[in-house]
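User: I'm writing a short methods note and want a consistent example. For HAUS augmin-like complex subunit 1 isoform X4, I'll paste the sequence; you return only the structure tokens, no commentary, since I'll be parsing the reply automatically.
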Amino acid sequence: MWSKTEMMKITFCTDPVAAWLKKIFGDHPIPQYEVNPRTTEILHHLSERNRVRDRDVHLVIEDLKQKASEYESEAKHLQDLLMESVNFSPANLSSTGSNYLNALVDSAVALETKDTSLASFIPAVNDLTSDLFRTKSKNEEIKLELAKLEKNLTATLVLEKCLREDLKKAELHLSTERAKVDNRLQNMDFLKAKSEEFRCGIRAAEEKLSARGMDTSLSHQSLVALSEKLAELKRQTIPLKKKLESYLDLMPNPSLAQVKIEEAKRELIFLSEKGEGCET
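Assistant:
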């Protein structure tokens, strides 16, 4: 149910709204709508805005009519003045003259001058010429900018083409490398499995040898260490051999030379026996 205030609002607005709708639609039937405070308020607001707009339009029309009347009076005055001074009338003009007069009027309208005098035409033409030069200058700037954009666009398209080709090459190279990596991963998995298999076999063999009482000094690692030690001893004997050779080339004191020779022989024998012990 509507409140008393809403009913009063509907009653107050319904008559102006109905009159406005009848004026808008004329002889056509008014569309059906739900009568409630909301729709009544909206239609009342629209009617008020329409009334204000109609009033503004009426004022503009009246102003234009007044200006048209003033222009007609001015034209009539000028025509009478021409008739009185030089007995001239547009009706007396030839077809060429009428064409010139129409062209003059069209030019004044196009240039938006207040009349067809030179004092009005010259500034208007100057303004139009200035606008033309500004437009040409702007067009030149736009052409230069367009040329620059076309150049940049061409360079961008070339760069895009190169990038696409590089991308294809990179994808092909990546595909090849991925295949290689997959193959290496498979080989690595195979080698890991084999390594684990060999490690288990070595561990089992060591356990068997240990159970049979094998000396750890005969293991591969011990033999490698002894071989490296023997090579070091042999390397140490090289200076002694060279030193001994230098003594053999001299004519020494027999007794002193014999002592030195015996010392060198004993040291050489000692190192040789030590090396043979390591090999054993």
